[in-house]
Specification:
alpha+beta, single chain, 3 helices, 3-stranded antiparallel β-sheet, two-stranded antiparallel sheet
Length: 161
Amino acid sequence: MPSPQPHGVGEPTPEYPSAWSVQTWLPGEPASPVDHESSDPLALDVVAMVSALRAAPVRGRSFDGHGRGGTLTDHDEWVAECIGKGAHLLDADRVRRLWAELRELPSVGPDVMSHRDLTPFNLLVSQNRLSGCSTAAASVPPIERSISSCAGTSSMSVGAS
């Protein structure tokens, strides 16, 4: 899957307190939940990309404890906050019940690579097909450094399957 190639990573500063990067440009438009909601080819492309990520070797790395990934139960506080903030958009009680069930599921295998921010804004589409992933190259070997932050930049992470 084409993804931007990093040309440099900047350190956080008082003016911009998150890591930042300069990357190559990729053609395509960000996926839209409205424009692409019924695109079977795009859905199959995303499945293929996620499957490839999950098959990538983790080379002994494990989740670093920052951002998204790891054990579900480690994220209870954040999930509760998100459900609270989104209560006007969804059935919050139903989502809380679902989270209570999902967080108890056992791991079914070894840790695998996962994308920390798989949202439409990070998927590039051309002619209803996935043409790139705007954040996929951030920590795939040989780049080891994660530039993930709560501010929205993301990378791939190793997390429990």
